[in-house]
Amino acid sequence: MLRFAVQRLLGAIPTLLVLIALAFFLIRLAPGGPFDSEKQLPPEIETKLRAAYNLDDPLPVQLGRYLLNIVQGDFGPSFQYRDFTVSELIATGFPVSLRLGSLAMAIALLLGITAGTLAALRQNRPADYTIMGAAMTGISIPNFVLAPLLVLVFAVWLGWLPAGGLGDGSLRYLVLPVIALALPQVAYIARLTRGSMIEVLRSPFIRTARAQGLATHTIILRHALKPALLPVISYLGPALAAIITGSVVVEQIFGVPGLGRFFVQGALNRDYTLVMGVVVFYGSLIIALNFLVDLLYGWLDPRLRQS
Amino acid sequence: MRRIFAGALILTLVACGPAQDPAASAQSAAGGSTDNVLRIGNGAEPQTLDPHRAEGVPESNILRDLFEGLVGEAPDGSLVPGAAQSWTVSDDGLTYTFSLRPGARWSNGEAVTASDFEYGLRRSVDPATLSRYSSILFPILNAEAVINGELPTTALGVRALDENTLQIQLNAPTAYLLGLLTHSTTYPVHRASVAAGGERFARPGSLVGNGAYQLSEWTVQSHVRLDRNPYYWDVANTQIDTVYYYAIENPDAELKRYRADELDITGALPYQQLDWVRANLGDELVISPYLGSYYFGFNLTQPPFKDAKALRTALSMAIDREILTQRVAGAGEIAAYGWVPPVAGYTAQQPEWASWTQAERNARAQALYAEAGYSAENPLRVEVLYNTNENHKRMSVAIASMWKQVLGVETSLLNQEWKVFLETRNQKSATQVFRAGWIADYNDAYSFAQLMHSKNEQNDSGYVNAEYDALLDKAAVEQDPAVRAGYLEAAERVLLTDLPIMPVYFYVSKHLVKPRVQGFVPNIMDHHATRQLSLNGG
């Protein structure tokens, strides 16, 4: 088991290095630079700025220095937000994104599984059609359309919820962004659950349970739900990725100061260090989570450890 | 002349003082305990709150509340004493002596002294500060050499003569110096907090200012919160307790937050919703002239516009600016035939054809187009470059169709993302016609005129005319305001004959302001200090 863990860990390092190198060169490949602005810099000042940010060294040297620094946890100063380091920005942005993302994930799972199960139990009846119709709509409406509509209805017309920002950080500011982020996932999970639940309900062990006269809710909760959730669990990885990418859009629309918003603004401003910081941070996070999942699988299924 | 000017300002201020006092204290007593919080939509996230390194509009809006320069601005934008209560100018116009307001304090209670201003200006031009805007201080003696690292910062022509007296020496008489001293690069900074906080001192807890407000909270990409500075010299007349500046780049999102009553003042307006705003929020819409010029530039370093004055004139004549401002821009922008917007002490210049009808202009444009060697069989093919934005797109499409209709020009449109656009435009190799806009740094025609000087880095047209440069150089050292304006006006006439650019319109500022906000006076610089505003009830 230990050898397996070490193997997987060693495998993760090159992945991370490739990711860092790709992001490093791609952002520098983009035309325009961090110091381009409407008011041109005097050449002397630009020279000094480039020197201060070590932009004059050959790219491999810059990359090498960057790698050395991030090993020590130093993501460098932000080019755009000159009063902050990238580590500080990540430290303020990530908790916001984490809160937003985990709430969205929780709601997506809770609502999705419930709706999917209900639809499966009423298969091909009006309730099923309604739920699946709603799910289809949820999947097809992109969040950048959904989000402004939510704001218009719930903030501008009804005045129930704030239209944007994070305010004092209370939950009411997160309701609309969480809904915008969660709805497409709710829809997807509902469809997955419904499909696999219908299959499970047709299987012999459920028929046996029914024959034994067990109550419907016992059959569903005790016996059918667990096997029916397998496809949902394997969808968790893609769902997490979808929520992270979705947060880039949703945070921007609602003005939520999370990592997604930093990433978008960083790219527009050619804030090399901030973009790199977010990429490395999210990249490491996803690689770490995948590593944990691998370990989990390895622990569950010994055959995987041998291969 | 100038001494009288300064004296008159002080008199006005003194005259206003006692009249305002009782009214103000009565009002704050009545509404003070309730919701005395102002919420402003402020465009992009500030890059920094270090006054010497800041460059953009969102930053300077906040810095005007946090700091006070030697010279201040009244609500209508006119210059009034700021941290200096008065000043004198030597007869040769080269030496300004400022007398600071006695008893002025930093937000930590320490006294503001002349040496704080001396330190601030030296820090601003110190190459180590990496200020991107310090070149604006070139008029000060030795500033250019210090910025270029050729002289130490102590060589800068700024001296604290005693605790309350500051002297600034100039390279040449600079008529706009007082306006320049409202700019954030001239603000004083608190030496001890800069020493302690290093290059990141401009944060809550370590930023010490001399303005009416102090920095309490800063959440990047969300908001900056300021609270009243109890040590500010005019705190008795400062009415709003707290002000929030929200970072909202998207005007649509900003409008929604305004409608949801989360903002009191918006920083911008979405053009597509102007009609709706007029119909539904007309009373809260404040539109007024803004010191900015929207134009398209021609690249003079390459064909087809190199040595092609007739062609440039034809293109400039063939666009109907009344339609462009009324139907395409539509917020009340002013059709521009000249380069410098209406500004005090300067007579606006226009080419002769500005007074013609559009039909007459079109006829002349067609003749010039033919003269330049183009025809229906051999049309001009040209590319118009603009930065990706719905408004610029609509403007470019409208201009292209006017050129097509009047002259038969084949135009292709190209848009580029902002940073890419800036790089392309600056290289002067891949552009033919490009969009541009210029907002004045200070309230003076020179802020526009200097842009077209052959040595200016932002001269993206590559315009070189010795006569134009000579007139500007004369204006730069001229003391008599009328003579100086004459030079600048003559220079603009030269520019408008050469037409390296095609003026389109003069900007307007556009804000939505809630009825509860009192004292919001539109002005040409679009500067609004929170201490000059107040709120009605809650």
What share of residues of chain A is helical?
A: over 70%
Q: Largest interface here, residues on each chain?
A: A-B, 50 and 50 residues
The total strand number of chain A stands at 0
Q: Mind describing the biggest β-sheet of chain A? A: none
Oligomeric state of the chains present here: heterodimer
Distance from first to last alpha carbon of chain A: 12 Å
- Sheet with the most strands: spatial strand order of chain B: 12-16-11-15-13-14
In N-to-C order, the SSE pattern of chain A is HHHHHHHHHHHHH
Mean pLDDT of chain B: 89
Instruction: List low-confidence stretches of chain A.
Output: none
- The number of helices of chain B is 16
Number of strands of chain B: 18
Helix content of chain B: 25-40%
Features:
heterodimer; A: 307 residues; mainly alpha; flat; B: 538 residues; alpha+beta; 6-stranded mixed sheet; 4-stranded mixed sheet; 16 helices; 18 strands; globular
Plain-language structure description:
The complex is a heterodimer of chains A (307) and B (538). The mean pLDDT of chain A is 87. Chain A contains 13 helices and no strands. The two termini of chain A are 12 Å apart. Chain A is an all-alpha fold and 307 residues long. Chain B has 538 residues and is of the alpha+beta class. Chain B is built from 16 helices and 18 strands. The two termini of chain B are 46 Å apart. At the A-B interface, α2, α4, α6, α10 and α11 of A face α7 and α13 of B.
How is this structure best summarized?
Chain A has 307 residues and is mainly alpha-helical. Chain A is 76% helix and 0% strand.
List the helices and strands and how they pair.
The complex is a heterodimer of chains A (307) and B (538).
Chain A: H1 2-29, H2 43-52, H3 59-71, H4 86-121, H5 126-140, H6 143-157, H7 175-201, H8 204-211, H9 216-228, H10 230-254, H11 259-268, H12 272-300, H13 302-306
Helix pairs in contact in A: 1-12, 4-5, 4-7, 4-10, 4-12, 5-7, 6-7, 6-10, 7-9, 7-10, 10-11, 11-12
Chain B: H1 2-31, E1 37-41, H2 57-66, E2 71-73, E3 79-81, E4 84-89, E5 95-100, H3 114-125, H4 143-147, E6 158-162, E7 165-169, H5 177-180, H6 191-197, E8 213-219, E9 223-228, E10 242-246, H7 251-259, H8 274-281, E11 285-298, H9 309-317, H10 321-329, E12 334-335, H11 358-371, E13 381-387, H12 390-407, E14 410-416, H13 418-427, E15 433-439, H14 446-449, H15 466-477, H16 481-498, E16 501-512, E17 517-518, E18 534-535
Parallel strand pairs in B: 1-10, 13-14, 13-15
Antiparallel strand pairs in B: 2-3, 4-5, 5-7, 6-7, 8-9, 9-10, 11-15, 11-16, 12-16, 17-18
Helix pairs in contact in B: 9-11, 15-16
